[in-house]
What we know:
Keywords: Coiled coil. By secondary structure, this protein is mainly alpha-helical.
Amino acid sequence: MTAASENRLALTATVVALAAEAAELETRVIELRKALAELNERMRAMSNALHQAACSAVPSSVAVDEEHSGGDRTE
């Protein structure tokens, strides 16, 4: 085999190897994007749950006013 044909074979092998690696990386990127989307949805659900819990745990100003005035609220 000549040096030129050896170089072509080496170049072809390199291109094939790089193409295979690129395909693997592209698959991994897709998997990571899906995982990030799932994580984002879980974080949004947790944020909503915490917000609802915080809103239900905070007494309204009317309840606080009545509690501090002994329940006799007059306006």
